[in-house]
Specification:
The protein is α/β, with parallel strands linked by helices. The chain has twelve helices and 13 strands. The structure holds nicotinamide-adenine-dinucleotide and 2'deoxy-thymidine-5'-diphospho-alpha-D-glucose. The site of nicotinamide-adenine-dinucleotide has 30 residues, from helix 1, strand 2, helix 4 and strand 5.
């Protein structure tokens, strides 16, 4: 049985990964370590709380003794590090916590993985470490790192640390760099769930700048299957880009959401742009598709329909989030924009 320490498993992608792994791979045991920040939510794990192959631990990835204790107690074979501060806008307002969790937290996990000689350390990174693209071209695994926001700089620092532990101490690692995810349980600070939530309430949809920035969207389930393949099949020391070839401008995505919800385009409001806003991301995912035979299960239109349906059917999940501190965040971020 594969015993995995998943960090950040109460967040968006981590909880989708835990659900996918426990449902499709009965031979794995998961210890799920999460600090339950504003983005961590035990409701994301509803139905899996008491699964016999799942143990949730509330804690911080910066807590070395706790990580050592978990590895010893559960004879952990591998770590998958999802835990992070993940929102670019928050990194512009308050960068420090991004360094604490994304850099110091990753370092703490790496030290434990090295000392305990774990079989594998999988770092969940992002395409944003490559910086931004002009109108053409795609990021490959060999594109030099050139991060532009405090968030992406902290993720790039973590990637360098992971590689350094491999080079210096022979740590067996992989790094995955995925494009923008969307799907069930995504916190409504990110563009797609924020726009769905606002449209449902007939509130303005705040599009940054001209809205012609391009993102390459991937359905979260497909990101999770790719990570599972990397964990189980990839040789150590390999880095994989993950993406679904779904480049869209933000205005195209917002228009699709409005059409699907039968809401008027007049809800779109262009607001002040994000400082240092990266114009375009696009992923070349040939390596993982060829070497590990991974492919996405849905295209963007199918994925966004499933996502909108999920939000319509899980209104209680959304209401619980937006009725808490979220409103303060929203007002601070958007009221004078
Ligand atoms: P998220 O913000 O939804 O979840 C992050 C989780 O980490 C939360 O549950 C939070 O409580 C937990 N966490 C934060 N600090 C912690 C700490 N110090 N110790 C333990 N737990 C802590 O993020 P997400 O969107 O699910 O992203 C997960 C990972 O995937 C991140 O590493 C992110 O950089 C990466 N990524 C995200 C995307 C995307 O589009 N969302 C794309 C590519 C890569
Ligand atoms: O590319 C992968 C990255 O994608 C991940 O590493 C990050 O964790 C994740 O947050 C995401 O970063 P982005 O900044 O691309 O995602 P976000 O959803 O914040 O924004 C998507 C696009 O929409 C971006 O061009 C900014 C724009 N936007 C966003 C918000 C929240 C708006 O126009 N209005 C908004 O209100």
């Amino acid at each position: 049985m594969k015993k995995i320490l998943v960090t950040g498993g109460a967040g968006f992608i981590g909880s989708n990964f835990v659900r996918m792994a426990l449902s499709e791979h009965p031979d794995c045991f998961i210890v799920n370590l999460d600090k339950l920040t504003y983005a961590g939510n035990l409701e994301n794990l509803a139905g899996f709380e008491n699964h016999p192959n799942h143990k949730f631990v509330k804690g911080d990835i910066c807590d070395g003794p706790l990580i050592e204790k978990i590895i010893n107690e559960h004879k952990i074979d591998a770590i998958i590090n999802f835990a992070a501060e993940s929102h670019v806008d928050r990194s512009i307002s308050e960068p420090k916590v991004f360094i604490e969790t994304n850099v110091v937290g990753t370092l703490t996990l790496l030290e434990a993985a090295r000392d305990k000689k774990l079989e594998r350390f999988v770092q969940i990174s992002t395409d944003e470490v490559y910086g931004e693209l002009g109108p053409t071209g795609k990021f490959t695994e060999d594109t030099p790192l050139s991060p532009n926001s405090p968030y992406s700089a902290s993720k790039a620092a973590a990637d360098h640390l992971v590689k350094a532990f491999g080079h210096t101490w022979g740590l067996k690692y992989n790094i995955t760099r995925c494009s923008n995810n969307y799907g069930q349980y995504q916190f409504p600070e990110k563009m797609i769930p924020l726009m769905i939530n606002n449209a449902l309430k007939d509130k303005d949809l705040p599009v940054y700048g001209d809205g012609l920035q391009v993102r390459d969207w991937l359905f979260v389930y497909d990101h999770c299957t790719a990570i599972w393949m990397v964990l189980s099949e990839a040789p150590p020391g390999q880095i994989y880009n993950i993406g679904g070839c779904n480049e869209k401008t933000n205005l195209e995505v917002v228009s699709l959401i409005l059409d699907r919800l039968k809401k008027p385009k007049s809800l779109i409001k262009h607001v002040k742009d994000r400082p240092g806003h990266d114009r375009r991301y696009a992923i070349e995912a040939k390596k993982i598709m060829t070497n590990l035979k991974w492919e996405p299960s849905v295209n963007f239109e199918e994925g966004i329909n499933k996502t909108i349906d999920w939000f319509l059917q899980n209104n209680k999940w959304l209401t619980n989030i937006v009725s808490g501190d979220y409103q303060k965040y929203y007002d601070a971020m958007y009221s004078n924009r």
